[in-house]
Amino acid sequence: MRVARKLAGEGSFYTAVVLLVLFAAFPFYWMVITTFKTDADLYNLRSNPYWFNAAPTFEHLRYLFEETLFTRWLWNTALIGFCVVAITLAVAVPAGYSLARTPGRVGENLGIGIFLTYLVPPTLLFLPLSRVISDLGLQDSLWSLVVVYPTFTIPFCTWLLMGFFKSIPREIEEAAIVDGCTVLGAFMKTVLPLSLPGILTAVIFAFTLTMQEFVYALTFISSSEEKPVTLGVATDLIRGDIFYWGELMGAALIASVPVAIAYNLFLDRFISGITGGAVK
Amino acid sequence: MTAIATTPWLARSRLLLDRPEFVGSLFIAPAIIYVLVLVGLPLLLALYYSVSAYSIFNPSFTFVGLSNFRDVLDSEIFRRTLLNTFVFTIGAQTIGLLLGKIGAMLLMQEFPGRRIARALVVLPWAVPVSLATLAWLWMFDSLYSVINWTLAAAGLIDPANRPQWLGQQDLAMIAVTVVHAWRLFPFGVVIFLAGFTSVPKDVLDAATIDGAGFWRRNYQIILPTMLPIVVIALIFGTVFTFTDLSVVYLLTKGGPINSTQVLGSLAFQVGILSGDVAHGAAICLFLFPFLLVSVIVLLRALRRREI
After folding, report:
1. What is the pTM of this model?
2. Is the CB of residue B85 less than 8 Å away from at least one CB of chain A?
3. Which residues from chain A sit within 8 angstroms of residue B105, using beta carbons?
4. pLDDT tens-place string over residues B252-270
5. Which CATH superfamily, name and number, covers B68-306?
6. Cβ contacts (< 8 Å) between A50 and chain B: which residues?
7. Cα angle value B131/B134/B137 (rounded, 5°)
8. Is the Cβ of A80 closer than 8 Å to some Cβ of chain B?
9. ipTM
């Protein structure tokens, strides 16, 4: 009797887990199966959509890489990501360090102030920023995104790095200063090497935040050659009412996989970053 | 001695670099300048747009007072949009929080495959929103929707009269809310998971020995301890849903007949597609009171966290 109840309990537990995972991951299963189905199989109301009714095909992927600008968009995204990460690190590493070492309420309030700008949404800024972008002569160029994306990666990474720098004991720098380093030298020689894991986390999140953005790209860029992958796939692979679903899902899948892996690897650090170290 | 005298600048800069306050301000300055120029300044510009007659056809800053706001408020579409924005946000947050709590309680247990389950559950929140939304767009397809195929196969709907998920007003509302909730709930799961681990185990054990049951432990120990974290997560989720326009833009473009229009998508349509920047800016600024409240709540949560 007790065994039966335990089994029933376990059964409902696993059912709940499976339902939850299905709800979360089904759209991704759908991306995978659509990518490798032939058109004849995809657009047939009679066939079971959950599995292959004809042999899987690489035709959609071939079309995507050979006949569309997909590789160009991937390259654009990589380029934008690289530049944004570089700008973000150059600004956020010193800022995070400075905030971590500014004593008392001042440093903390300044830190919270910078973090709050992360809450100012693109929706509030895309109209005025499109004017700023055209004044800078960057309209319809991917460099507009390189200029604008740090507005959200800098606040986020500054906050994240501030937490990391706070965990490094001040005594280490003080020892270096006593030994004849300048404040700057002590930072470069002792703090930076110790905080490499934190800096790596900042790199990952600056890059993934950049990949997730859509609104600014949609507003600033209209030439296909300049689009990042998220925008290019969503706007250029849909022509009128004709959808290239196999290509669309293949493109979405390829662009999603690296971000999904990065997120899962750095998830715990993201959480402690966003809650400001409230969770250890 | 002569070396110092011949390079006074270097000597002075070396002295300055020895002063922590100077290095501190030097280090923080670029961040503050970047944020001021590309967030602060545009905010002011948005404010200015909203009281002007600026459009891409007539880029003049003629001051028109509050008439843009009056026009916007008078518009039936805007009032519908404002209501929609709240419905989507509250709906998605409620579903997201509930699923987040349930998911965290499930994933807290030790079971084989737990890591894989967690990795899969996090997916909707991790991948770029525009790409994930495309998958839903395909799943809601008017003809080849897998949801409709399944419902028809189960005999729940008539295949000849299948629901148009994005083409019927009420269904489109549900579709957009579900996609938002789907995107949000993994965030809830990881936040609740982090929260659970922050509750001291000995306190829980002591309470159990003293006779506290499941609900009592839940509401008198676990929830109060993790409240600050949950509030922070809730604020983030709410702000991102409330101000989002990509899900609506990709799924329905605000249609059918503006029934799924939200503040962000309406502002995009008016300010960018129609070129009426002034009215677009006025629409955006209706986000502001909401953001202000969010910021105040967030600040209180951040302060409480430190106690």
Report:
1. 0.86
2. no
3. none
4. 888 788 888 898 899 998 9
5. MetI-like (1.10.3720.10)
6. 146
7. 160
8. no
9. 0.87
